[in-house]
Write a structure and sequence with these properties.
This protein is about 70% helix and about 0% strand. It has helices spanning about 5-30, 35-45, 45-55, 75-80, 95, 110-120, 125-130, 140-155, 155-165, 165-170, 185-200, 215-230, 250-285, 285-370, 375-390, 395-405, 410-455, 460-470, 480-495, 510-520, 525-540, 580-590, 600-605, 610-635; strands spanning about 60, 205-210. The chain has a two-stranded antiparallel ribbon. Residues about 25-55 and about 550-570 have low confidence and may be disordered.
Length: about 625
């Protein structure tokens, strides 16, 4: 390269450095996102706490860690002459600039000085002046020097190269294996340096270190929590393949492939760190000690709980025994008291029995001495009355009666006897009448409650259906009451007349009981049926329009499907003749259900019946057919 060109390049670089300094100092702080600025303020507020951590021997700043990498002693001149500019990704940029012994510890000033020193010595113009043969500038090793400066002079590119620096990674990326129990005395010596070397990859600084065997459990937990959630700044964009596609789609595909490869390498790096932490946790003698202490503590707590439970059980057992003994003593005293009272009652009863026996004997002797106040024909009756007095009267009453007899004459004694007998008989008769009345009242109450419950189970629609079914299926029908019950259930539940889901289906027993109740309430079944039918027809007629049309009567009486007329009442509907029935069947076939004016057309076809009468007749026929099918199914 010509000297003028080289000078222009140096001037351009210097201008770029001034421009970057001005941007980073005066413009960039005001262009950063609010989250970054907040993070800086929080970092400033927490500066005191961070400084305390740095001073603590168990915390280190990752950027100050020295990694004992192997320094290359290869001659720099020989290394530079062997470089191929087309393979710049494989070169050691620190070694190119002569900073192989400093590497990530090299400062920006050291990099700039090393680059300037190499320019003065290896610039093609300088070498030409010395008489050296210089290749094409694109193939000359000086391009590798420029590339090394471009990468190490840019903070982001330098971080990308430091992330994959094989010289440092050969030491820092080593993961010790798990230690056996007999090897754990070497744990701190083996794992502590590895954690210190890997601290430089952490985004969060300072980084807690492994510590020693005397570390507290809280610090040990904090250490492993930090490393299990380790946030590494290593990234692998330096190893991306060049994006050289012919169109944007191909370039996007290559960029996506590079992104996937970077993600895969990042995952391997996190796996390596996780393996390091897992091996350390499994080999850490402090964890074993803490687990043993925790186990002993839990065992002590468990034993304390057992002792407390045993003491509580013993106290409860003692209290239970005392309670049982107290209850037994109270029971014994109660039994003794009850026994004494029973003995006393027994003695009183025996004394009373003796007195009662004595007074009865006295009464019998007095009555026997007076010949029972009667001749031979009345003796037997008075003897029975005497025994009745002995059985009913108490000892005191017998004693009073005997005293009255002893102080009275024969005639007065007779009167006293008759009065006493009459009083006893009246009392017995009153008790007998009261018992009979009480029994009758209970029977009436039970009957009324039963009828009330039965009435509650039957509503007006069900009563109408019951009367209609009794008319449709007269006496002599097979399984008559089962068929009537099925008819009612079919129309109430399947027909959708009621929405009361709590009502139960009627059985033959319910139908028979209700029929008997109705007959008992209304002595004339025909009158009752007529009244109900009339009420139903009045309710139906109130919703219908009056149709005045001449009625054809060919003198033929058809089979009756509807309710009977009541005593020839003029309000009853006119029965259908056979001719009308036939015309209705033909009209139903002629005009399908899809016809919106079906019933109007059918009424015009019959001429003698209104639209409402045709609809009503159709529904009656459908109900009769359904009831017959239901009865046939129930009979099976």
């Amino acid at each position: 390269m010509h000297l003028a060109s080289q000078t222009a390049l140096l001037v351009a670089r210097e201008v770029q450095e001034h421009r970057d300094y001005f941007y980073n100092t005066h413009i960039r702080p005001f262009c950063e996102p609010s989250s970054v600025r907040k993070g800086k303020r929080a970092k400033g507020q927490a500066g005191k706490h961070s400084s305390q951590k740095v001073k603590n021997k168990n915390y280190v700043n990752g950027q100050d860690v020295e990694i004992p990498f192997t320094v290359s002693h290869e001659n720099q001149e020989d290394y530079l002459h062997r470089l191929d500019p087309t393979q710049w990704r494989d070169q050691d940029h620190y070694l190119v600039l002569g900073l192989g012994h400093r590497r990530y510890q090299a400062t920006d000033d050291e990099i700039k000085k090393a680059y300037k020193r190499l320019i003065l010595k290896h610039h093609p113009d300088k070498r030409r002046q010395k008489g050296e043969a210089v290749q094409d500038e694109t193939k000359d090793y000086f391009a590798c020097i420029n590339k090394a400066n471009d990468i190490l002079g840019d903070p982001e590119k330098r971080r990308a190269f430091d992330s994959i620096d094989a010289v440092v990674a050969a030491v820092a990326d080593d993961v010790p294996d798990k230690l056996k129990p007999e090897e754990r005395q070497e744990f701190f010596e083996l794992f502590a340096p590895v954690f210190r070397w890997n601290a430089r990859w952490s985004v969060k600084q300072p980084v807690p270190q492994l510590g020693d065997n005397d570390a507290m459990e809280e610090y040990t937990d904090e250490f492993y929590e930090f490393w299990y959630n380790f946030d590494s700044w290593r990234e692998y964009s330096y190893l991306d393949e060049p994006v050289t596609g012919d169109d944007r789609y191909e370039r996007r595909a290559m960029e996506k492939q590079n992104k996937d490869v970077r993600k895969e390498r990042k995952g391997k790096e996190m796996g390596r760190l996780r393996r390091l932490v897992d091996n350390a946790f499994a080999s850490d003698p402090r964890i074993v000690k803490f687990k043993d202490e925790e186990k002993q503590r839990k065992e002590a707590e468990k034993q304390a709980r057992k002792d407390a439970q045993r003491a509580r059980q013993e106290a409860e057992e003692q209290q239970r025994r005392e309670t049982i003994e107290k209850e037994q003593e109270e029971r014994r005293q109660q039994e003794e008291s009850a026994k004494a009272e029973a003995e006393k009652a027994k003695k009183e009863k025996e004394a009373e029995k003796k007195v009662l026996k004595k007074e009865r004997k006295t009464l019998r002797d007095l009555m026997k001495g007076w010949n029972y106040f009667a001749d031979n024909s009345g003796t037997a009756k008075n003897m029975q009355e005497t025994e009745k007095l002995c059985d009913i009267l108490t000892a005191q009453q017998l004693q009073d009666l005997n005293e009255r007899f002893a102080a009275a004459s024969l005639e007065d004694a007779r009167g006293i006897f008759v009065d006493q007998v009459d009083e006893i008989n009246k009392k017995l008769e009153a008790e007998r009448a009261a018992a009979i009345k009480e029994k009758e009242d209970k029977e009436k109450l039970a009957s009324a409650q039963k009828e009330q419950e039965m009435d509650q189970r039957w509503n007006e629609e069900e009563l109408k259906l019951l009367i209609k079914a009794v008319n449709l299926y007269p006496a002599g029908t097979g399984n008559r009451w089962e068929v009537v019950a099925e008819y009612i259930n079919h129309h109430m539940f399947i027909g959708g007349i009621t929405t009361e889901t709590e009502r139960q289906k009627k059985t033959a027993k319910d139908v028979i009981a209700k029929s008997k109740t109705l007959k008992r309430i209304d002595q004339c079944h025909d009158t009752m049926r007529a009244e109900v039918n009339k009420k139903a027809f009045d309710s139906f007629a109130g919703t219908q329009k009056t149709v005045v049309k001449p009625a054809k009567d060919d003198g033929t009486i058809t089979e009756r499907f509807d309710r009977d007329t009541v005593n020839g009442s003029a309000d009853a509907p006119k029965p259908w003749s056979a001719a009308e029935q036939k015309l209705l069947e033909q009209a139903l076939k002629k005009f399908p259900a899809s016809d919106p004016a079906r019933w109007d057309n059918i009424a015009k076809e019959l001429q003698t019946r209104s639209k409402q009468e045709c609809v009503k007749r159709y529904k009656e026929l459908v109900e009769k057919i359904k009831a017959q099918k239901a009865a046939a199914a129930a009979a099976k």
